[in-house]
Amino acid sequence: MKKFGALLLFCSLTFSQDAIVVSPSTLDFGNVLMGNTPTQTFTLTCNLDQTITITPPSFYSVDITEIAMTDGQTQQVVVTFDPPQVGTFNSQVVLAGSTFGTAIVNVNANVTNDLQGSMSGTLTSEFSPYEVSDDLIVENGNTWNIEAGTELHFKFGKQLIVNGILNINGSPDNMVKMIAADADSGWAGIKIENSNNSDIEFLQVEDVTNDLSMNRPYLAFEDFED
Description:
Layout: H1 2-14, E1 20-23, E2 26-33, E3 39-46, E4 50-55, E5 60-62, E6 66-69, E7 73-81, E8 87-88, E9 91-97, E10 102-112, E11 114-118, E12 121-123, E13 130-138, E14 143-147, E15 151-154, E16 160-162, E17 165-169, E18 176-180, E19 190-192, E20 199-201, E21 203-205
Parallel strand pairs: 2-10, 11-13, 12-14, 13-15, 13-16, 14-17, 15-18, 16-19, 17-20, 18-21
Antiparallel strand pairs: 1-3, 3-7, 4-6, 4-9, 5-7, 8-10, 9-10
């Protein structure tokens, strides 16, 4: 009886804390633009000598799927989200110990084609058309490239403001289009300020309701100079 009681005491002490601990327990990717593959990181702590298997859900991946850990060891795990389409993708990364314990990390993401705020990098035509729900700003020091064939549909009153560098790479048979989401309401056009290095080729602009942009089918950067 004494040996049995000692065994129970040992088990109680051994598993008085979770064998697998994750922090944070939720990764919220927020609104993800189609074509982007954002990453977030959580920390795994193992309180037992064992191998941990990490299984991500569909459209998520991890930089490590199995790791042999010792008691008290920690490991950072990078989770990458690669959205297949517009929609909500809430799921769980599952961690299982080879000896004892499981844990989960909730992963939440909402995939949109909604552009707003500060812009940089390259906007591809693959997931076009994009809806513009608020002003777009290319800030000073930023460069924003837009591929040929890309369409942006601006909501009423919204505009594109350029203080950095805007490169629009359209072609005669595959222009970049900036139009209103509702042609009857229009949008506020393009305003280029303090930008001398932008390169705009074969941009089609339609439905502008004020004088912030030249409402012509073809635009060159010189059209915006004072």
